[in-house]
Amino acid sequence: MDKDIETTTGLHGGQCHCGGVKFSVKLAEGFDKPVRCNCTMCRMKGAVMVFAEVGSIAVTEGEDLLSTYQFHTNVAKHHFCSRCGIHLFHQRRFDPNLYGVNVAVLDGVSPFDFDEVVVLDGANHPKDSGGGELKVVAKVRVDWL
Ligand SMILES: [Zn+2]
């Protein structure tokens, strides 16, 4: 990473653009494995994500502003602020015990902080084709000047 961000332990604060929704999160693997996804939803959303176990996100403000979008099998739950529209986190279809957290809404973190971001093949989801792991379709690298 480009910045000295506290990694595996500790709580991170986060909020949407308008500040209406605030939350804290304990990340499952810190910032070690940032990912993007090419599924129909994520390719539009464009978020770089890290993971947190269900139960390790606490919404501390604006729960009434949080809205949820679901599609296809309706397993994944994409949570966003209904006022400013910013996506915060989603409960994963691949593993509903995990949330994917949008790094851009975490305090002091930018999606441009990472040297390499793996792109997962959510477009060809293993749960649509009999199981297995999500494939990696690309690794997006940044060469810092
Ligand atoms: Zn908002």
Describe the protein:
- The longest helix has 4 residues, at 42-45.
- The strands form 3 sheets. Strands 4-9-8-7-6 form a 5-stranded antiparallel β-sheet, with no helix packed on it. Strands 1-2-5 form a 3-stranded antiparallel β-sheet, with no helix packed on it. Strands 3-10-11 form a 3-stranded mixed β-sheet, with no helix packed on it.
- A hairpin with a 6-residue loop joins strand 1 (11-15) and strand 2.
- It has 145 residues and is mainly β.
- The protein has one helix spanning 42-45, and strands at 11-15, 22-26, 35-37, 49-53, 57-61, 66-69, 77-81, 87-91, 98-102, 116-120, 136-141.
- It has 1 helix and 11 strands, in the order E-E-E-H-E-E-E-E-E-E-E-E.
- It has a single domain (11-141), classed as Metal Binding Protein, Guanine Nucleotide Exchange Factor, Chain A (Beta Complex), CATH 2.170.150.70.
- Zinc ion binds at residues 16-18, 20-21, 81, 83-84, 86.
**CATH topology descriptor:** Metal Binding Protein, Guanine Nucleotide Exchange Factor, Chain A
Report how far apart the termini are: 14 Å
Outline the biggest β-sheet: 5 strands, antiparallel
Radius of gyration: 15 Å
Described by the principal axes of the CA atoms, the overall outline is globular
Q: Give the amount of beta strand, in percent.
A: 35-45%
Task: Going across the biggest sheet, name each strand in turn.
Answer: 4-9-8-7-6
Number of domains: 1
Unreliable residue runs: none
Mean pLDDT: 89
Order of helices and strands: EEEHEEEEEEEE
Query: What is the structural class?
Result: mainly beta
Report the helical percentage.
under 10%
Bound molecules: zinc ion
Q: Count the strands?
A: 11
The CATH C-level name is Mainly Beta
